[in-house]
Automatic annotation (TrEMBL):
Organism expressing this protein natively: Saccharothrix violaceirubra
Family: Belongs to the ABC transporter superfamily.
Family matches, as PANTHER family: ABC TRANSPORTER, ATP-BINDING PROTEIN
Keyword Nucleotide-binding: yes
Ranges of residues in domain ABC transporter: 2-227
Protein name listed in UniProt: ABC-2 type transport system ATP-binding protein
InterPro entries: AAA+_ATPase, ABC_transporter-like_ATP-bd, ABC_transporter-like_CS, P-loop_NTPase
PROSITE patterns: ABC_TRANSPORTER_1, ABC_TRANSPORTER_2
Amino acid sequence: MIEVRGLTRRYGDVLAVDDLTFTVEPGAVTGFLGPNGAGKSTTMRIVLGLDRATSGTALVGGRAYASFPAPLHEVGALLDPGAVHPGRTGRDHLRIAARTNAIPTRRVDEVIERAGLGQAARRRIKGYSLGMRQRLGIAAALLGDPKVLLFDEPVNGLDLDGVRWIRGLLRQLADEGRTVLVSSHLLSEMQQIADRLVVVGRGKLIADTTTERILGGLGHVRVVSPEAANFEKVLVDKGFVVHRDGEELRVENSGADHVGTVAHESRILLHHLSEVRQSLEDAYLDLTDDSVEYRGVGR
């Protein structure tokens, strides 16, 4: 379990993380989302003891990362796949990490196979593609068979086969009861992988809930009726949030069955009734619209 409580990190006048509180539970894949500059990487670095909090705490299993004598047994992480010695082979990189954390050498071969490195593990890292560096970083994260795993943009540089592999790996790790936190800008992948979402903007918590709830809460029901004006009044009187455009109604945060029941009871003729499910990208843009710090300007 990862517990972040009242976490704040200030760099001079810049407030990178602002009183952030959330929990990442075991047995689920938790997506960590937010615009550039939202504080995601800073938060993950503090969890891993690579940066200090100005105030608040970030604990793994109730302990600070720095208190673990052999941290790879407790926490595995992929933050920067480029932060490796380019002159070493992938296998040597893993063997050194294993030796410094009292991990049996046989475990190196196991994670090489699980990460799909194959013969590439015997080549020098400077010749690796970004995708192979990602696989090496994931192998290193798995080396100590930890219960807690953090991945920052794990699908970067992976081909389609690699993306499918990491998708299955994350699901398997969560199903084994591990705590899995994944930061990514590929929202289509997060929609398929994540059970829960923690969304941040300008260092503050925006949402902490299930993926299903975020998607469902931002969906709507589309209605087409020759009696749209009358039906709008009926729905509003019953507490629905409704937008009308001619004969078409958009009913927010409801289900087609509920809206259809109201139409039947009110003897309203409908020509069309359907639920419109937004994608995670739509939901994310709605949630973070006020928190985007860097925007492009069109011509």
